[in-house]
Amino acid sequence: MTESPTPYVLDADTMTGGMRPIRQAVVAFGSNMGDRHGRIQGGVSTLEDTPEVTVVAISSVYETEPIGTPDGSDKFLNAVVLIDTTLTVHTLLDRALAIEDAFGRERSEPGAPRTLDVDLIIVGDRVADDDQLILPHPRAHERGFVLVPWLEIDPEGEIPGKGFVADLISGVDTTGVTKREDLEIIL
Ligand SMILES: Nc1ncnc2c1ncn2[C@@H]1O[C@H](COP(=O)(O)OP(=O)(O)OP(=O)(O)O)[C@@H](O)[C@H]1O
Ligand SMILES: Nc1nc2c(c(=O)[nH]1)N=C(CO)CN2
After folding, report:
1. Considering every ligand atom, which ligand is closest to the CA of 100?
2. How far is the CA of 2 from the centre of ligand 1 (A)?
3. Residue bearing the CA closest to ligand 2, atom 14
4. DSSP single-letter state for residue 115
5. How do residues 77-124 score in pLDDT, each as one tens digit?
6. CA 158 – CA 151 distance, rounded (Å)
7. Which residue out of 26, 116, 142, 145 has the highest number of ligand 2 atoms within 8 Å of its CB and is therefore the one to mutate?
8. Domain contains 103
9. Which residues contact 163 (CB under 8 A, 6 or more apart)?
10. In ligand 1, which atom is closest to the CA atom of 121?
């Protein structure tokens, strides 16, 4: 009997064969349109439904003043999630974009209200800089609406090349970031 060759997966990111490593990633969710809490809850649940993703920790929900959006924009709800994943970074990005689409995201002009925004903040120590993906997220280190929820669930958190979340947060205005004690994201 002829044996078939041993199947293996070529990991496009590491270009090594065999098992893909488990990486811990930080994923940020934001919404400032419609049922903001329902959309973030749905987005986190959908991410957890991905076979190669395990949600490890979920922050509280924060109400946040909009930053970098047109005057008069509505406030956001934001939350941050820690996951373990064996997905490649680009497949994880595709998953994030599909979740945005599933919750009604329309890509219009920058700063337009968003039903659901899903950003990859870090994926382990992976660095990316291409047309689709920049890692670490290039603006995360200056965003209170990312750093405050991230610190809550990961006091040792670090943005490679930028520093520890606990240190970065002291250089950021966090006055517009308020925990919503009445809301939570559950699996
Ligand atoms: N780390 C990343 N996480 C998510 N999307 C990214 C990342 N790096 C690059 N992108 C690209 O950004 C595009 C979407 O940008 P989007 O319209 O969501 O930006 P934004 O949410 O308005 O702004 P910001 O990126 O500052 O949060 C995606 O199509 C994706 O290819
Ligand atoms: N408070 C807040 N402001 C933002 C947010 C966000 O999630 N929260 N997302 C943006 C673009 O992704 C731009 N500005």
Report:
1. 1
2. 49
3. 67
4. S
5. 999 999 999 999 999 999 999 999 999 866 666 666 778 999 999 999
6. 9
7. 145
8. yes
9. 141
10. 1
